[in-house]
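To fix ideas, we reproduce below a protein record of this kind.
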Amino acid sequence: MPLSQYRVPEEASDISRAWARVRANLRESAGSRLFDQWLKPIELDESGDVERVRLTLPSAFMTNWVRNHYAERLVHEFRAILPQVRSVTIETASAAPVAHVIAAPAVAAVPAAAPALATSAAALEIEQPVLDPRNTFDRFVVDVSNKVAFNAARALAEPGPVRFSPLFLHSGTGQGKTHLMHAIGHSFVAAQPGARVIAMSAERFMFDFVASLRARDTFAFKSRLRSADLLLIDDLQFIAGKDATQEEFFHTVNEIMGAGKRLVISADRCPQALEGIEQRIVGRMAIGLVADIKAPSLELRRTILTRKVADLPDARVPMDVLDLLAARITGSIRELEGALNRVVAYAQLTGDTIDLDFAIAALGDVLRGVQRRVTIDEIQKLVSTHFDLKPVDLISARRARAVARPRQIAMYLAKRLTTRSLPEIGRKFGGRDHSTVIHAVRRIEELRDTDRDVDSAVRTLMRELEG
């Protein structure tokens, strides 16, 4: 579809012109099939303004899908055209606006043309935390896999003296880190309405910092972040290797901690295992409380699905379908919810009744994919648990046999069960050379023929990893 189809009349407003360009960019990047199914139905609500853009969709299901998959992208696209955009709200057209105040996943960017002294107390006062209203403590399902992280998050959100800071949350993708961070923000604001909370991804931190450099307005950027009473930074791993951004991040962390304010950071692994992050930043993270969220248990996955179905009043999903999803999709809560959404969407589009056969047909490629998809992180965690080690031992320089042999087994499994190249595997094991990986693979292959214990360990680990 040519871009000219999204042009608007000369007399159209700035926001209408921006929306036409955003739609064109989305279609080009997402492809015609995905765009036509999910993004084309989005309409611009003219009651919004250039600072607070409002978009609508025809159904609650489509609204939730766009929120989950494109909220941050929409913010980025609008701000690339109109830097003064502060938030993008995605609502269901037939619903009352107050019922669907959604989180754009980033706070306002500093306008590119703003002079350095434009950041005033009044400007800071109107900035509100952009938090997903669904991500509260009450809606977080707790069990042994996430209990420590949940309790730590609630403790940090309580008013009064700061008990610890920063709080560092780490887990695999889609296991609840962002939910807990937003829950902290909601609880903190509810207890202290006048508090200033800023929530953003590390990628957003980098984007806004670079924009401030280009605009020669780093003062406004620094002032805005360091004025926060609670600063939430998600997915720290995304600034790995970005030296200038890490320099600014380090000083921001120092300022927040030095002022006795609250800081929450999340990443996909513990601080010591982060690659490409400066050691002085790692050291600051380790000063506070580090809490991990483990992979969800079968019981937790089942409870999450039950609660999710309750949020979809028009959906009728039998127990055996929920049991299938909980048993087969084990790695990520986000994948689990996505699979449920897919089954419900297919049923709504086809008019069919959801049963076990329908779910299997709708999720055929998903169910096959989860059976064979294994990550190096999972391998390292499982191997370290099997041999009673810490995951960081496998990427350390230690050469003791008690560590070296499990490390070789983990490398062997990474070569057998993932599609990563030898250099990529080496980098995941503490930056080792690909020749080290080759040696490890050959050595384990030899030992499997001669050492019954090694062969038994490898077989057990492969069974667990392959489900």
User: Anything to note?
Assistant: The chain has four domains: 1-102, 105-294, 298-372, 376-465. Residues 60-81 form the longest helix (22 residues). The mean pLDDT is 82.
